[in-house]
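Teaching assistant's notes for section 4

Start the section by putting this record on the projector. Ask students to predict, before seeing the second block, whether Dipeptide epimerase will look compact or extended. Collect guesses on the board.
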Amino acid sequence: MAPALTVTVERWPIAGRFVISRGARTEATVVVATITEGVLRGRGECVPYPRYGETVEGVVAAIEAMGAAIAAGMDREALCAAMPAGAARNAIDCALWDLEAKRSGISVAARLGLDPKPLVTAYTLSLGTPAEMEAAAAKARDRLLLKVKLGGEGDAERIAAVRRGAPQARLVVDANEAWTEASFDNAMRACVAAGVELIEQPLPAGHDQLLTTVDRPIAICADESLHVATDLADLAGRYDAVNVKLDKAGGLTEALLLVKAAKQAGMGVMVGCMVGTSLAMAPAVLLAQDADFVDLDGPLLLARDRDDALAYPGSLVSPPTSALWG
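Reveal the predicted structure now:
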């Protein structure tokens, strides 16, 4: 029986609001690609991201357009050649990995030579006033690693407030391109004072030449500036680490190549996520087994998760069961 590709749109409520420098959301909209072959089913979840010119409708259309090719037996390598990197390709690529595991009876982890273990994941604090963020940090103070969303003006006060709220937690910050040349030094000094270990994408992608001339006492991580392995060459001299996300890379297949290339280039690796369910996180947990930083807390930001969800004991995220993915 030929494989059949279908696509669905799902909306999952966020617990409270999720706020970054580009705006706030109260629900996560995800797109799920499902490939069925007889009684077998492979699934992949993606999150269309407007920052990269993606819409839900556009991603759905791009997935549906691959239906005939999937029915004809397209594999992951051909998929990567046929589609650009992005959310749509990620959903299909991960669905193919899942289906291959179901066909063969061999898990994705085993195919990758992994004996996956639970990982310490960051827990994200949304952007807010210093008082709001201090209160949020105090509630999360027992978590081992906090990821702090910053927004530009007032960031020095925000990061100091978070450190007061969670005096023992390890900290990484994510400015989502909100810093400027004028604010950079003050924000960097505040991060140093707070003991921050990593700063994600402080300056806008394509407007980050300042990073070649300033001291970087804290490692700078490329997020919006990096999507696929061929982007790495453009980051030399500006970034010390990369944030690898399946939705940016266009699937686990490309993300594995990207992580390998980044490590060969001597760069640190964070494996991150958009706000989605455990189905989106499952392949990323395998990708992150050798990462320096793990940021796969998407389901923790939701009011509810799907069946067979990942386990999040304490500050850890556990590998997926076969009932969920892979």
